[in-house]
Please model this.
Amino acid sequence: MFDEIEFDKIKRLPKYVFAAVGELKMQRRRAGADVIDLSMGNPDGATPRHIIDKLIESARKPKVYGYSVSKGIYKLRLAAADWYKRKYGVNLDPETEVVASMGSKEGYAHLVQAIANIGDTAIIPDPCYPIHSQAFILAGGNAARFAMKLNDDLSLDEGAFIEDVKRVLIETSPRPKYLVVNFPNNPTTATVTPAFYEKIVALAREERFYILSDIAYAELTFDGYKTPSIMSVEGAKDVAIESYTLSKSYNMAGWRVGFIVGNQKLVGALAKIKSWLDYGMFTPIQVAATIALNGDQSCVDEIRETYRRRRDALIKSFANAGWEITSPKASMFVWARIPKALRSMGSLEFSKQLLINAQTAVSPGVGFGPAGDEYVRIAMIENENRIRQAAKNIKRFFRENGIAVGAEE
Ligand SMILES: Cc1ncc(COP(=O)(O)O)c(C=O)c1O
Model:
């Protein structure tokens, strides 16, 4: 009877590619298989004790149960500004240049709702974290994609990136108003140097577009690599915002806390839309998040070290199974090229094969965009023993099927 009523925005959202692997994973588990789940970027570790204690202490106070502040309590915004000052030497005004968000995903998606006009185009490198492109689609805009080029060590080919952005700016109509950058990158783990941000900010000022930068994995870095921030570039505030989250660095993914900083016009637009849509996170969560940012940071070192150990175990044990993978310098992921002998089946089919034959769940690269189809993303969210077990299962799968891996890569 209501068939003629269509939900155009929902229709524009594609089916989530990961759902196919997710459903198969549940089927295998129901059938009794011990699936090693390396698919989602969902940290398995506990939030550090002092942060939980602060939540409990704050939740016992009588005045915390009412509506909070939609753009975040002042102390949390100040803590975010102090984090930038300490880490990057950047000065931010907590009143006009910082908004706290319910995780960076909510903040980003609502920012895009607030700023994108119907038909606006944003340049989104391919592959990408899915909401980076879909937020523009949901807002009635479009994503102009280009395949991101990486060097052999998984660092970004920065020169090629700048040239690609210039080309897409010229080729795309209407002319793009936004560029999304995310380094360390999900899914590819790609990293950049500070010089990259200088060049991209200069280009944005010259060509008049805004840059939305996401540094969710800023603290998960290895081998001496340090994540640069676009905010360190002089003049960045004229053209850029940056989002950060407590989800990964403090194992707080379920708490839903992050923040967005930078350009006053964009940050102000986010604050305004949030004031219409919500009343802010539960105050004790914001108080505990403030403690996370201001308190002892040794917990972050421990979380980083956990991922480093897992990364080393993964690279070594998978190599032993004949699957040579480049070791990432950052993030909680490994971006693994599918072994040559199996590459032609595509990442979705390969992921299914790994689930069925090696009880290991990974994310198909194509779920992050067409340029990801020769890869799978492996999330390091199980312990080292489980990772080694996955490698053993994979080795058996390759052997039993006579799949020649290794030498010919
Ligand atoms: C690049 C990137 N940005 C943002 C997020 C979302 O994080 P949050 O929990 O802060 O919403 C993720 C989560 O996986 C991510 O990979």
The chain has two domains: 8-46+299-399, 66-294. The chain has a mean pLDDT of 96. Residues 103 and 257 are 4 Å apart (CA to CA). The first strand starts at residue 36 and ends at 37.
